[in-house]
TrEMBL record:
The gene is LOC116220365. It comes from Clupea harengus. This is Tumor necrosis factor receptor superfamily member 14-like isoform X2. Residues 80-122 form the TNFR-Cys domain. InterPro entries: TNFR/NGFR_Cys_rich_reg (IPR001368). The chain crosses the membrane at residues 213-237. Disulfide bonds join 81-96. TNFR-Cys repeats lie at residues 80-122. GO terms for biological process: defense response to Gram-negative bacterium; defense response to Gram-positive bacterium; negative regulation of alpha-beta T cell proliferation; positive regulation of cytokine production involved in immune response; positive regulation of T cell migration. GO terms for cellular component: external side of plasma membrane.
């Protein structure tokens, strides 16, 4: 390197008096490139290029990947991404990226289908919320919490938040699906009696009030009707029995009379 530096200094000393500032700048650039080449360091590639060995190759556009790298005499060979793969930016990749699969077992569904230039975007299934959000999408979701009997839905779940439950207190109840606790039915106000007291998870059960007087009166009437029916049946039976006996007596007297006349 000392020999190279001495050579550079000799060039500068012999040229400086004869060149202007513009030429001086060009010479400095040339010298720097010589230094980089000798030291094994290559200049950086452009923004639309990628390095392969000592070459700066043109990148492939979104939706494409590198089939063959460039050479000193040929540019990069790019081909379209196969189905279910993509590249979403200029690249020097030798294969496209696989599209994301929206797994229903992970609580996901497709929000935006994959294309050659963009990956699949997933979103939570209905009744689920995202637990692993990414830009414009989701990588994992779980089902909304279900409120238990005795609780109400204080805040309905969304695609990004879980359901929030609250507890019923006092004389109120909810089966877990209500958005607010409901007061227990007051049976006496609607002319009924309590069959089962309400709790925080179910309402009071009401039933009709039983009328004792009406029940007793019904029993008495029933007994009276039964007794009257039995009496009528007994009366008819005895009447028919007496009538048959009278007929038998008449026949017997007639037979005795006829026998007496036959003897005479």
């Amino acid at each position: 390197m000392s020999l190279l530096h001495s050579f550079e200094n000799a060039i500068f000393m012999s040229i400086v008096p004869k060149v202007d500032e513009e030429i001086m700048v060009k010479l400095v650039i040339i010298v720097l490139m010589i230094q980089l080449t000798v030291s094994g360091i290559s200049p950086a590639c452009g923004r639309a290029e990628y390095r392969i060995g000592q070459e700066c190759c043109p990148m492939c556009g979104p939706g494409y990947y590198v089939r063959r790298h460039c050479t000193e005499f040929k540019s990069t060979t790019c081909v379209p991404c196969p189905s279910s793969t993509f590249t979403d930016a200029p690249n020097g990749l030798v294969s496209c990226r696989s599209c994301t699969f929206c797994d229903s077992s992970a609580g996901l569904r497709v929000k935006r289908a994959c294309s050659s230039t963009s990956d699949t975007l997933c979103e939570p299934l209905e009744g689920h919320y995202c637990t692993d959000p990414i830009k414009d999408g989701c990588r994992g979701a779980v089902e909304h919490t279900k409120c238990s009997p005795g609780q109400y839905v204080n805040q309905t779940g969304t695609a990004s938040t879980d359901t929030v439950c609250g507890d019923c207190v006092g004389n109120t109840y909810s089966d877990g699906s209500f958005t607010s606790c409901r007061p227990h039915t007051q049976c006496e106000l609607i002319g009924f009696v309590v069959l089962r007291e309400g709790s925080s998870s179910y309402d009071t059960d009401c039933g009709q009030r039983q009328n004792t007087v009406a029940i007793v009166a019904g029993i008495i009437v029933g007994v009276a009707v039964l007794a009257a029916t039995c009496g009528a049946v007994g009366f008819i039976y005895h009447r028919r029995k007496r009538k048959r006996k009278a007929q038998q007596d008449t026949c017997l007297k007639s037979d005795t009379h006829m026998r007496g006349q036959a003897i005479l």
